[in-house]
Each structure stands twice: as C-alpha cells, then as structure tokens.
C-alpha cells in the first residue's frame, strides 16, 4: 500500500489559531505527518476539511 501524500499546497502561512491557510492542518499535524499511519493521515485530512481559518490574518506566520 502506498503512503498517503501530504496535502500541502505550498501556501504555508499560519493563522492566529495555528492552522495553515493552505492545507488547514495544525502545526502539530504538519510536524507529525511523516510519523502518522495512513489511517491517521486520513483522519487528519478529514478534520482539516472541516476547519476554517481564523479571520485575523495579521498575526499569521510563515512556515517556509
């Protein structure tokens, strides 16, 4: 079985809640992605799809 690829779309900027504007994963989920099983990765992708970014973007930070 092939490993699930990262949902990163290279818009690596974090909102004030620590959620990426591009993939909507948390900082923790991004950092642990390579450690997750495929089942855990599927769960993260489902959670990220339901997330919204915080409206306050002025405090966002870049990952790259």
List keywords for this structure.
single chain, 64 residues, mainly alpha, two-stranded antiparallel sheet, 2 helices, 2 strands, DUF1289 domain-containing protein
Report on the structure:
- There is one protein chain.
- A two-stranded antiparallel ribbon has the order 1-2.
- It contains two helices and two strands, in the order βααβ.
- The protein has a domain at 14-51.
- The mean pLDDT is 88.
- It has helices spanning 27-32, 38-50, and strands spanning 13-14, 61-62.
- InterPro entries: DUF1289.
Low-confidence stretches: none
Structural class: mainly alpha
Give the ordered list of helices and strands: EHHE
How confident overall, as mean pLDDT? 88
- Give the CA-CA distance, first to last residue: 30 Å
* Annotation, overall tally of beta strands: 2
Radius of gyration: 12 Å
Shape, principal axes of CA atoms: elongated
- Given the structure, what is the number of helices? 2
The largest sheet has its strands arranged as 1-2
Please state the oligomeric state of the protein chains shown. Answer: single chain
Helix content: 25-40%
């Amino acid at each position: 079985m092939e490993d699930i690829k990262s949902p990163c779309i290279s818009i690596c900027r974090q909102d004030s809640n620590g959620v990426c504007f591009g993939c909507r994963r948390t900082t923790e989920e991004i950092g642990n992605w390579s450690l997750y099983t495929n089942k855990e990765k599927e769960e993260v992708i489902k959670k990220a799809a339901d997330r919204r970014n915080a409206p306050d973007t002025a405090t966002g930070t870049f990952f790259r």
